[in-house]
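Two folds, back to back.
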Amino acid sequence: MKTDFNSLKELHEYYAVHNSCPLKKSATQPVYEITPPSSGIFFIGEAPGRNEDLQGRPFVGAAGKFLNELLGNIGLTREDVYVSNVVKYRPPENRDPSDEEKDSCRVWLNSELLFIKPKVIVTLGRHALGRFIPDVNISTSHGEIFYHKTGLPVFAMYHPAAALYNPGLRDDLKKDILKLQAFLESKPKQNVTKTNEIDKLLEL
């Protein structure tokens, strides 16, 4: 696993070439951000959709607009946080990514985490939550904080897209983002993960 990158742009350009994700054959392009977050908050969804596939940037469609609204509710903007996905290519017809596809992007996501060293991971939806905290049901665990073996806090939320199909989830997401704010305000400003624990992120 290559980790000696000078920028996120360099990191993504490298893994756009050096990856085995079968989705790259059908997708327009990989989808990623290139600016580190000033807040230390790392949001992770499941996969890009149509708009993201066309623009090459995560969460730019309707779900992204709702995410921006949620961030605004706690005084943040997209420029303050980092947003990524478990897989970097759009699955055909926006279907769920397969286990093979998620595994093929595992090193790519690990490299992002190593570069950014977030103070909290916010998982959006069951695929992202399962990536870090297996065997947990999103419907009973949203709004809760978990701790990965590295010491990284993992905050579970529904995916904003879920609220587009089930408007009843909008209130849950609005309440959960306030819980995230309360958690962030209760923690020290520096990254939770200690320097000597960063290498454990390779095990994620």
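---
second:
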Amino acid sequence: MKHVAVLMGGWSAEREISMVSGAAVAKSLADAGLEVTPVDVRRDMGALLTRLYPRPDAVFNALHGRFGEDGCVQGLLDILDIPYSHSGLLASALAMDKPMAKRLFVAAGIPVAEHVIADREDVTAGDVMERPYVVKPLNEGSSVGVHIVLDGDDEPLFGDTGWPYGDRVMVEKFIPGRELTVSVMGDRALAVTEIITAREFYDYDAKYADGGSRHVVPADIEKKIADEAMRLAVLAHQTLGCRGVSRADFRLDGDDLYLLEVNPQPGMTPTSLVPEQAVHAGISFQDLVVWMVDNAECDA
């Protein structure tokens, strides 16, 4: 019987949703007949994994955010020689580093929003780009720390919360329009979903709070646009060197698509975007997570 360790939790800003993803994955893998050990990841993860008996045949990495999907855990698993789900060290690091990922997307001919990298102090002191624009951390996921600055906004950019995400930030031209997302499984795009929310944008609460958003799959868009979104999602996946499952997020402005980012380790609750698209493509949640374990690898 294959023994799978499911990594979840961690200490990033996305710990809570990682616990939900991990619990869903662990249950589904156990229901499929695998031996499963859930691991609430701490900074002694290497010691935790080496003490497991029997040694895991594979790791399902259900961590989200920094340290879990940015190459850090992947590097440790490479050292331990334990195959793991999702992308390897380099692809994970590239996907989470927004400026570097954008450079690669542009080189591959993938349309992205205009952006600049600026000092935090310059951004708080005044506009570094014509409004409206979006301010993002350089290496967080799930819209953590994202702020939209519109014409007429006069509130302090970060309010009383400050900015705990480093001294450099990405300032990106705001793209109006519709929110689309495409899951990639291996080298296959599964579907296009439109995400509809009453919130200002698809932020953390819209992603994970009850009633925060509505998913329309397949998206009610022209076939040529859907086909292009799926083509670009696969191209972005390949450009970063991703493997397993990833998800590409787009804005659709008229007929123009803009890639916002690629998530190398998207949420894996049964109602998350990737499992929804898998079901639409005829793949059950259990079949999806078992496929991800069967395709687990280490970086060579």
